[in-house]
Structures are given as structure tokens and as C-alpha cells.
Amino acid sequence: MAVDLSPIDADLLKTLTDVHGIPDGAYNIRKDGELLTRSSSANIEIATKTDNPGIDIFIKEGTKGEKVYIPVIMSKAGMTDVVYNTFHVADDCDVTIIAGCGIHNDAHEKAEHDGIHTFNIGKNSRVKYIERHYGEGTGDGERVLNPVTKVYMDSDSYCEMELSQIGGVTSTQRDTDAEVGAGSKLVLLEKLLTNGDQVAVSNMKVELKGEDSSVQVISRSVAQDNSKQTFNPLVIGEAPCNAHVQCDAIIMGNATVTAIPGIEAAHEDAQLVHEAAIGKIAGDQITKLMTLGLTEEEAEAEILDDFLS
Amino acid sequence: MLELKDIVFEVPVTEGSSETKRIIDGISLSIDTDKFVVITGPNGGGKSTLAKLIMGIEKPTSGKIIFKGQDITNLPITERARLGIGYGFQQPARFKGMKVKKLLELAAGKRLPMLACNEYLSEVGLCSANYLTREVDKSLSGGELKRIEIATVLAANPDLAIYDEPEAGIDLWSFDRLTQTFEELYKQENGKSIIIISHQERIIELADEIVCLRDGKIESQGTVEEILPQLGLSAKSNSYCSFTEPPDLHLTEISTNC
Prior knowledge:
The complex is a heterodimer.
Chain A lengths: L6 H11 L8 E6 L2 E6 L4 E5 L5 E6 L4 E11 L4 E11 L4 E11 L6 E11 L4 E11 L6 E3 L2 E6 L4 E8 L5 E10 L4 E10 L4 E10 L4 E11 L4 E10 L3 E11 L4 E4 L2 E4 L4 E10 L3 H9 L4 H12 L2
Parallel strand pairs in A: 1-5, 4-6, 5-7, 6-8, 7-9, 8-10, 8-11, 9-12, 10-13, 11-13, 12-14, 13-15, 14-16, 15-17, 16-18, 17-19, 17-20, 18-21
Antiparallel strand pairs in A: 1-2, 3-4
Chain B lengths: L1 E11 L7 E12 L4 E5 L6 H9 L6 E6 L2 E2 L5 H7 L1 E4 L11 H9 L5 H10 L4 H4 L10 H15 L3 E5 L7 H16 L5 E5 L3 H4 L4 E6 L2 E6 L1 H8 L27
Parallel strand pairs in B: 3-8, 3-9, 6-7, 7-8
Antiparallel strand pairs in B: 1-2, 1-4, 4-5, 9-10
Helix pairs in contact in B: 3-6, 4-6
């Protein structure tokens, strides 16, 4: 299906997917609240939901090495787009899902996208999920993204989620809930950059329900100018399990970062650890890079870039 | 290449105090091209401060620093680095998220092929296949971090390289490899000079010139033959320019078989 993309849309898509134009394989591209183009593959079927706006993505048992792209782009202000996407990953799969939302807002009105993503991951399946959120535009209209992510993992599965907000989002509230089955591992990597007067709240609740289940939560964030971030992950161990929660934030200007990592053990063999650190860029880091010929500004940009890489 | 003219560096006794303490007390020193200079002396003698003054990390209270004929006394660190001064820190910084390869590339000022990175790391006794993709964060041991720090200066290849106690925190086997690297690099007549702050006899022996600092002043200066006997390292006696504490040498079981 031939699709004409405006330069703005093409740039937004590239930022979200790292792909020029329309990707190969299975994809569903949504623009300004409507389907722009869709393609299913032999093993991955994408179908429109009948009860809510959104799609069901069915990934057949044994599907390996395939990718699914489901980016959303918005270049129209004055609308709130709510979409429900449900992934049904059968047993023994190994797939990569690339999602995200890019908003280009040159207007004075708000543009908001709320994506509710649900993952049902079958036995022995591996899922890598990459979600990027990005905002741009010259107007003072708010760019709002409130994603909800729900993950249900069957036994012996693995799920790695890389959730990043790479700039330009005025306000976000992220809610991530997960239930992890026996022998399964969940890795949640969240990267957040806020500046200006932006506000970001990230709530997570991970329940380790099965024996030998584990979760690793890594949060890396940079808060600049007057922005405010709240990071609020809770891990509950209900079985012999392992959890590690790590929150690292760099704070600059008059920004505020609140990190409230929580762990709750409901089994005597639950091993749960959390650590949180908030601080400015260390002076010795900048000095070292300056001795390599970088200016102070270049050194600062390099340090932030690597921290969020 | 480098000339220090009557350098004085004072700091307030306590923060905000007008009373000052003199850390460097009128040091004049000239370092020619192709020279290997070791600065040694007791702790608190001003060695690291002098090195920081040359790099621009500290600014002198008075005096002049001339590098390759240019007065760099008031130039910032970045400008000095671009003119060809490099610095290996005694306690290197850690960078969350930055890969070893990236740090080496920043040092070299260009993208580096894997082979070149391997070369720099093997020169400091690190098996690069394991290290290039690792992050320069707390997952590295102190000794590993220190050797990577030295590798960054090798990659930067400055005209004047300053190393502040490169042996501190490095195991004996890596130390051997490191000494060999310094020897190979700076015994060549390649138009480059090196200043190493060290307490190690093995490094001191390599020097064209030894400068012994005490209480912010040059206490003695000369060739290995002239100065080494006065240091009393072998006899461990408290003679002319002795150490108040033994040098740090942390033995670890890091494999250095590259």
C-alpha cells in the first residue's frame, strides 16, 4: 500500500522507528487518531478492535526473529487520541515490538495521546518492546502522553521493555503494571528527559507471582530547567523471586526529582533490592572530558547523552 | 616545550577565610622536548597541585606558564588540551552509560577502529575484547578504571602527557606492562614529553630528569644518577627526600595475559 508521508510525518516516524519511510513486515501506523496504513505478515496478524479504538496483534506460536511496528504520529492539535493495543504473544516466540508516539504541535491547542498497551506473553516466549515518546513543534500547545502498559507473563518467558521519553513532551503520566509468572524475567528500562516546565510521573507495579520469577527495573532520568519528575516503582515478591530496582537521576537547574522506590516481600524467599541516587553531573566527569579537548558545554551534553543511551 | 616561571598557588586556610596557605611556593621549571620527567616527593609536597596547574584545573596565584612558546597561564583546560597537553588522573571519573570505546574515541578526537582500541588497552594490560563494550561505571574495579584512564591519554597522544601516580591502584603484573609502555613511548625521540608523578623506583629509573618537591618547593632536581641515591628508596631510610608513607600497591588477581 503506497502511503504519502509529509516531511514532518516522515521525520517523526524515523525518530520513533529508526526506519526511513514505511517499515517491512507487520506494521500499523496511526496518524491523528486514524489508521494510516497497516500490514499483517504470515505469523503476525493485526486486527481492528471491535469494542474500543485500537488493535489486537496476534503473534502465532513459534514465531521467531520477527518485528512489529506500531508507531503513532500526531501533527494535528486540539485532539485527544486514546487507543487500546493488545498483544497476544503465543508460546515459544521471539519477537521485537517497536512502538511509540511522536507529536508535532505548532499550535496553541493541546495534542494528547494515551496508549493503553496490554501484553499477554506465552510460555517460553521472548519479547523485546521498544517504546519512544517524543514531542516537537513551535507552538505553545501542550504535548501530552499518558501511556498505560500492562504485562502478563506466563511461565519461563522473558520480556525486556525499553521505555523512553526523549524530549519535548509537556506532561506525562506513565503507568506500568506487570505480573510475572514462574521462571520468567522482566527487564524494565525507563529513560526520561524533561526540561522547561515539563512534568513527568512514572508509576510502576510489578508483582512477582511465580517461583524463580525476577524483575530488573532501571530508571535513568535527566531533569533540566524547572521540570519535575516523580518516579514511583513498587515491586511485590509473592514467591521465591529476585528483584532489583535502580533509579538514577541527574538534576540540573531548578528541576525537582522525587524517587520513591518501593519493595514489598510477601514470601520469605523473596530477595528484593532497591537503590536510588539523584545528583548533579559530577565535576570530575566534566573536568576529565575537558582535558580531552571538549568544552564544558560539549562535555555536559556528552555525559547526558551517554547517561540516557 | 614547557616553562614554569615562579609559580605560586595559595588557597584560603578555611572557606571564605582571607588567611591563605601556600601550596606551591615559587616553582620555576623548564621541560624540553623529548624529555621524561618524574616528579616525586613526600605526600602533601604539592606534586598533584603542580600537575593540575599545568593542565589548567587550578589557576596559579602568580607566575607564568609557557607552553610551546605561548603564555597559557589564563587559558582554560579545553584550550590547553587542544594545544597538546594531556592528563591522567590519579582518581579517574566514572561515567554511567559511557562505553570504554566511546571514551577512547573522545580522547582520540575521532572514531577508532576496534583494532586501534585493542592496541591502547593492551598497552595498559587490559584484554580489550572484554572491555570495549563495558561501561566506565562502578562495574569496573579501581585498577581497571585506572588503566582505562591511562589508555585515554595514550589515545589522545598529547605532546605533553601528565600522569598523576599512574601506578596507584594497579596490580604488579599490569604495572610491569605499564612501565614497559611508558618506556617504549617516551624513550623514542618523537617530539613528545611526559611528566609522571610517582613514588615508584621502577618509574623513577626511567626518567631523564627527576624533580623532588617538598613543601611546595623544588628540593632537588637532576638525573637519575644524581637524585635516586638521595631518595633512599632501597634503604627505606628517612634520608634527604624520603617518603612519609609507603607507596600504594594493591595486589589483585586480575589477569593481564592479553
